[in-house]
Amino acid sequence: MTATFWLTLYVLIWPVVVVGTLSLIIRAFVRDAREAKREGRSII
C-alpha cells in the first residue's frame, strides 16, 4: 500500500474520531444537566 493511501485513510479517520469524542462529551453533559434539573440544582 502506498503512502498516499495511508495519508488519505489518516485524513478520513480524524472526522470520525472527532465526532465520536464530541458525541461522548455532549451525552455526558446532557445526562448531568437532566440529573441537576431533577435534583433542582444548577448545572454550573
Explain what the structure shows.
The chain crosses the membrane at residues 6-30. Keywords: Membrane, Transmembrane, Transmembrane helix. By secondary structure, the protein is mainly alpha-helical. The chain is built from 1 helix and no strands. The relative contact order is 0.09. The model has no long low-confidence stretch (mean pLDDT 95).
Count of alpha and pi helical runs: 1
Major beta-sheet overview: none
Gap from first CA to last CA:
50 Å
Number of strands: 0
Indicate the proportion of strand residues: under 5%
Rg result: 18 Å
- What sort of overall outline do the alpha carbons produce when their principal axes are compared? rod-shaped
Going by helix content, strand content and strand pairing, the class is mainly alpha
Query: What is the string of SSEs from the N terminus onward?
Result: H
Helix content: over 70%
Q: Low-confidence stretches at least 5 residues in length (pLDDT < 50)? A: none
Q: How much is the average pLDDT?
A: 95
- Assembly context of the chains: single chain
Transmembrane segments: 6-30
Keywords: Membrane, Transmembrane, Transmembrane helix
